[in-house]
Write a structure and sequence with these properties.
The complex is a heterodimer.
Chain A (H helix, E strand, L loop, with lengths): L2 H6 L1 H6 L1 E5 L5 E2 L14 E5 L3 E10 L12 E8 L4 E5 L13 E11 L6 E9 L3
Antiparallel strand pairs in A: 1-2, 1-3, 4-5, 4-7, 5-6, 7-8
Chain B lengths: L3 E8 L10 H14 L12 E4 L12 H9 L7 E4 L5 H14 L4 E8 L6 H9 L14 H16 L8 H10 L13 H6 L2 E3 L2 E2 L9 E9 H5 L5 E11 L14 H13 L9 E3 L5 H11 L7 H6 L16 H4 L7 H14 L12 E8 L4 E10 L1
Parallel strand pairs in B: 2-3, 2-4, 9-10
Antiparallel strand pairs in B: 1-7, 1-8, 4-7, 5-6, 8-11, 10-11
The chains are: A mainly beta, B alpha/beta.
Chain lengths: 131, 388
């Protein structure tokens, strides 16, 4: 189900592609349509580095439908080095080691399984930076 | 524009109503509202506004306007519609009813209703996550509870509190809910119990998380002419306002600032020619202590970073400076999803009428009810005044 919907998001999910304002240099992620008072040509595609730090995090013990197989899983708001905040799961880490301010980097992982007839949905997660 | 009054109100108990369906709950609430207004007959109702967040996702029913107009036997020739804005659904339905009555409609019926307990926790979490951004948040498995939890952790980090600082909120809610016969949880809790509670989404524990449950509440909203004919204290809806913010939490400049909560409260108070300091009793969206904290600070009751300190000193209890959750709040009364807004306004109206019983706020004459959809992406505020 929803195959086109996930395909449409491929540049956001696999490459962390957002937008940069041609004049001010402001970066936003994910890309969004221009607001009514913006010139659509002011924003250009821009690939983010994938590096950032934890702004805040939680560990979910009551999962929504479709995510039960994850068991306990950490989620975070990550402040990317280009400025934007992003919501994502954390991976390759222990809850006890997590802290606000911890440097993290983007990795591509499976986000969800849409069922027997569906597709495996991949996208960005973040893990503590490998030294 | 005419003045707008609450002419009648009624609500079901909040709980796991396994033996009852959505129509049954809504019908009871509407009947109770009419019974509370002996001077009003059903045929006088000129419009029906229904607020529900989860009626499609968790009950499989669309067109709640037509559906409930038929259940209640209202005239087929009046407008009947349903409004959705997650947890702010019925508060927004009331906002629409107020607009209609201000512009000449003599009488409107507003119903908030949720029927959610046919489903288990996973489906309820998924339904609540629809208030967030589907691509940028829900797809990543982030729940509404986890979003409040992340705000709580950030708040603790920025202001140097430990999680215990939020205990006064559920303790106050449960102390008050214990005295409300309609509440989901009618027992008190203490700080020790709070400290030992199991985690739901760290740092939020079970005793700092509301439970979504079934319920329906109804209000009859009348214009000045009709209200004059009714007995009892007159409760006027003196100011109502709606404001919005980005559904995606990460798109906000400062996620700890609930800017729509601030804007809607201030616009509503401005319309009532009042200020924050004039309000005697509050109803907030308080499923967690952090939610009440951020709302109190956004509205301007307290400086950022200080609400937990005031709560610890008793400021949020019925005898404090800013009483909240006098009927139990979302935590103890029960979280009725999109129906919450009508329960909130009913509690403020009881307080202003002097009929709030054991949790009555002394001399309360002005109250404000605020409902949030998601993490305050929609914020609706209603200011109520008892006329002398």
């Amino acid at each position: 189900m929803n195959i086109a919907r996930h395909w449409r998001e491929r540049t956001t999910r696999y490459r962390l592609e957002g937008q940069r304002h041609r004049r001010t240099g402001e970066v936003r992620f994910p890309a969004q349509p221009p607001t009514l008072d913006e010139d659509p040509n002011d924003w250009e595609p821009y690939q983010l580095s994938g590096r950032g730090e934890i702004y805040s995090f939680s560990v979910i013990r009551q999962a929504p439908s479709g995510y039960e197989s994850l068991g306990l899983y950490p989620v975070a708001l990550v402040r990317l080095e280009e400025g934007p905040l992003v919501t994502a799961q954390l991976t390759d880490c222990d809850e006890a080691d997590l802290a606000i301010g911890m440097p993290v980097e983007m990795v591509t992982r499976r986000l969800m399984d849409t069922g027997e007839d569906g597709v495996l949905v991949y996208g960005y997660k973040f893990r503590p930076c490998v030294q | 524009m005419t003045n707008v009054y609450i002419a009648g109100m009624g609500a079901t108990a909040i709980g796991e109503h396994y033996g009852r369906d959505l129509a049954d709950l809504a019908s009871e609430a509407a009947r109770l509202a009419l019974a509370s207004a002996p001077g009003i007959a059903p045929h006088q109702i000129g419009a029906l506004y229904v607020g529900s967040a989860y009626s499609e996702e968790l009950y499989g029913q669309g067109q709640l306007g037509a559906y409930l107009a038929n259940v209640l036997g209202l005239s087929p020739a009046i407008p009947a519609l349903r409004i959705e804005a997650a947890g702010a659904s019925s508060a927004l339905a009331l906002y629409q009813a107020v607009q209609a009555v201000q512009n000449g409609l003599p009488l409107a019926l507003v119903i908030g209703v949720e029927k959610v307990t046919d489903h288990l926790e996973d489906a309820i979490e998924a339904a609540q996550a629809m208030a967030a951004d589907s691509n940028e948040e829900a797809l990543h498995g982030v729940t509404l509870t986890a979003q409040w939890a992340m705000l709580m952790r950030r708040y603790l980090h920025e202001y140097g509190y430990t999680a215990d600082a939020f205990a006064p909120f559920p303790i106050n809610a449960h102390a008050n809910g214990a005295k409300n016969p309609l509440a989901l949880y009618r027992f008190a809790i203490d700080a020790n119990k709070y400290r030992k509670a199991a985690m739901v989404a760290s740092p939020l524990n079970l005793l700092d998380c509301s439970t979504l449950a079934d319920g329906a509440a109804a209000l009859l909203i009348a214009g000045e002419q009709l209200a004059r004919e009714l007995d009892g204290p007159r409760i006027r809806i003196a100011g109502s306002a709606v404001a919005t913010d980005t559904p995606a939490l990460h798109r906000r400049r400062n996620p700890l600032e609930l800017s729509a909560a601030r804007a809607s409260a201030h616009i509503a108070l401005g319309r009532a020619h009042l200020g924050v300091g004039d309000v005697h009793v509050w109803e907030l969206t308080d499923p967690h202590g952090i939610a009440a904290t951020l709302a109190l600070e956004a509205i301007g009751c307290y400086e950022p970073g200080t609400a937990p300190r005031h709560a610890a000193e008793g400021a949020i209890t019925p005898t404090g400076k800013t009483p909240i959750a006098t009927a139990g709040g979302y935590k103890a009364r029960g979280d009725v999803g999109g129906a919450s807004g009508i329960y909130q306004v009913i509690e403020i109206a009881r307080q202003l009428s002097g009929t709030a019983g054991a949790t009555q706020v002394a001399h309360a004459r002005i109250g404000l009810a605020q409902s949030l959809g998601g993490i305050g992406a929609t914020a609706v505020s209603h200011v109520l005044i008892r006329e002398s």
